[in-house]
Amino acid sequence: PPPPPTPCFPVQVATSLCHGISSMLTSWIFSSLIYALTEISYLLIIGDCGAPPTLKNAVPLDKDYKDSYLPGHSVTYTCLSGFYNIQGKLDVITCLRDSQWSPLEDFCERKFYFLLYMFLAISLGMY
């Protein structure tokens, strides 16, 4: 009679199961390695975005401000004192794969205009 199969774990496990698990593990390790190499080569080829752009009425909220950011990193801005964030306008930019920052419209407006608008709206009975 043939010898019994050698278990691949401390407990008795069927040989086909051992090979299946081994195959899945090998596949996972291989795909993880390919992913890691792709990310490394991507960073070597693409680079970074540099410092986020300077805006006239806002500053980056990030306390760990850097001179360079990798693709995929986002920076959130906050309005300067005396300005408010216009509802519906984005205050976040993202470093894109082409080493450029995503576009960002002015999203801060002087509080004076908001107060004037509210005063007129209340005075005219619109609010």
From TrEMBL:
<keyword id="KW-1015">Disulfide bond</keyword>
<protein>
    <recommendedName>
        <fullName>Sushi domain-containing protein</fullName>
    </recommendedName>
</protein>
<dbReference type="InterPro" id="IPR000436">
    <property type="entry name" value="Sushi_SCR_CCP_dom"/>
</dbReference>
<keyword id="KW-0768">Sushi</keyword>
<dbReference type="InterPro" id="IPR035976">
    <property type="entry name" value="Sushi/SCR/CCP_sf"/>
</dbReference>
<dbReference type="Pfam" id="PF00084">
    <property type="entry name" value="Sushi"/>
</dbReference>
<feature type="domain" description="Sushi">
    <location>
        <begin position="47"/>
        <end position="110"/>
    </location>
</feature>
